[in-house]
Structure formats: C-alpha cells, structure tokens
Amino acid sequence: MLLRVLIFGLLEGFAVLLAELHRYLGVHTDEAKYLINIPYPHPPLVRWILETTDGWQHQEMFWRIVFASLLTQGTWLVWDMARKLHKDQRVTLCGLWIFSGAMLLQAGTLFMPTITAVQTLFLCWMLTRKELLKQWSALIALLWLEMLFTAYQGILFAPLIYVALLRSGITPWKRWSTFLLPIALLVLYTPTNPLTIVATGSVSGMSAGLPIEESVTRVLKLWVIGGSIALSILGLYGMVRSRDYALVLTLMLVTAYIFVGFRSYYAILFTPLLIAGLLSAPKLLKSSAFLLALQIVAGIAIFLYVPFTEMSSARSIGRVLLEAGVHGEILIEGSFGHEWQYLMPGPVRRYRPEFIKDASAIVCLDRCSGIDVNVWQQLRNVSEEVWVKK
Q: Whose CA is closest to 231, among 268, 267, 271?
C-alpha cells in the first residue's frame, strides 16, 4: 500500500512539473478557446466544464494539472492491462507509456486530443476486462457519448466501441441503438453551431496543396513522437501480428485524419493504440529491460529536440497592462489568437483608428497609425509596442 501511495505521488509530481512547464510556455490559442468556451471547433462537453471555472485566479494552472494527471495516472490502467504478464514486463509497458514522446511533450496542455487519449486508454483497458464487459454495457454507452461530445475525433474510435459492445453480449438491436444513437445526437447538434462546420471544413483542408511526401512525413513524425520509436514500431507490429482488426482499422482512421488535418498535438492519439497493440502481442516484451532503456533515451531525446509551440507575448503584456491599471477595451493591431482574449485584463478588439477614442490601451503587433502622442503614452521595456492613455 505504501509503495502505491509513493508511486501515485511521484506520478502526480511529474504531472505538476509538466503542467508548470506549459504554463510557463504560455497559453496556445486553441487552449484559450476551450478555457473561455468559444463554440468551435469541438462539441461542448469539456469546454463547458472548463468554462465553469472562468474567473478563477488559477483556472489555467488548475486544469493543466488535471489534464496532466489524467495522462500520468493512466499508468495504473496500463499496469492493469498487463496483469497477466510478468512484473518486469508490466513495468516496461508502464515505462513505454510514461516515456512516450507525446506524453512528455503534451501532458499539461489543454488540447482536446489529451482527453480523447485518456478516454481511448480507458476503452482499451475495458477491452482487456472481457469478463466484466457484460456488466458494463451502460458504461460503454456513456463513454461513447462522452468521446463524441468531447471532440469530433472521437468518431475515429468507433471500431473499438463497436467491438466492446459486441463483446458485452447485449442483443443486436440494443447494440446498434447504443452505437448509433450518440452519433445521431452529434449529427443533430452540429448544424446548431455554424462555426463548427466552418472550422471543421478549414481543418480538413489544411493539407490541401501540400506535396504528398510532405504530408506522409508529417504523419510519420507524429507516429514516432506518439510512441518514441520503440513503442511506435512494436505497437504497430503487435496489432498487425495479432490480427486485431479493430485496432488496425482505428489506427488507419487516426492516420487518415491526421493526414488531411495535421496538428502537432495529435501525436497523443497514437499512444494508447500503440500500447494496446503491443499488449496484443506480449511476446514482443521479452527484452523488457532493453526496451525500457531505449524508450527512456528516445523519449528524452524527442522532448529535448522537438520544439514546443512558440511562446506568445500575450501573458507578459497582459501583466503589464494590469499593473498599469488598464481594465477597459484593448485594441490590437496585427494577427492575434484567442490567447490574447483570455489573458488581457479587458475586452479585446481589432485595431481601427475610429475605435481609438473608446479604448484604454493599444497593442501594436504590426505598425499602428493614427495614434495621437498627446493623448497616448507608449510603455517602455515591453516586448511589443504598447500604448496607454495618459
């Protein structure tokens, strides 16, 4: 019992460390969208939960710790998934999860694929508990609904959900209704939010015009990051060797989705599938000590050499404006994301000369025109050009 408490504490400390790292790096524009519940591109479940804490002084850090903890504490699910293996093999499988590049790079971020990865790991764990699946048909249905209304990527894991329902032994009409009803609800929800349709269309066309070899290279890069090479290769080989068609089909759907709508933080979607793939061919874990050492080296190398998202100056400028007593409307000239909307001390508006009279501050990411120096004072020692009223 004491050992389990110690391991829990170490995993939680690791989660807090990664959360603090990403807090330091800054709020990504997609993270800000979820924190303030901007209604696109995903369904509302998780972003609504995040938005309920809007106004908390440490809202961002709180959720970063929660998201990171869900990933790191998922190690207990991996441990139980390998309950039929030797202890050293179980430790290795847990190490492959913890030291995957995607885990090291993305634990502590507030992206929806992080939650989808946790949900997928839970689903893969359920599939290893065949003796209990018959009692869990309601839980499978709830998980399926939750996955779909967390992120549209949830539909990619439909083959695994169907297999889980099939193994639960429920009657065919219950199985199909449980499988199709959440999809129907998602289809009904989508037209109520036109922004979602527009955003989904723009994401699906992100790779349009790129050379096919570049698109393939980007997908392969995320596959390597998702498993830190060792897990990437063995997980894929394991699911193919064991002829786990549901896992293979799911991996193909995830790969196709990333191919047409690349985002660097989609790498974590591969990781639980690769864990399940390796577990389906446990003989591949024979050289467990070597695999764990290789995974640690590869994971740390990926963490050190794969660049993080470039830091925005929004946090530092927001702090300066707050210290200057700015609480009114803030105009921004140039291209900016939702992180400015989240981190500024007042409402944000795109810069227009006709809006100046009602503004409290102006941030010039590009060159500003029409600023009267008799009315406005430029702040010094700031990374961007910032003006406040005298």
A: 271
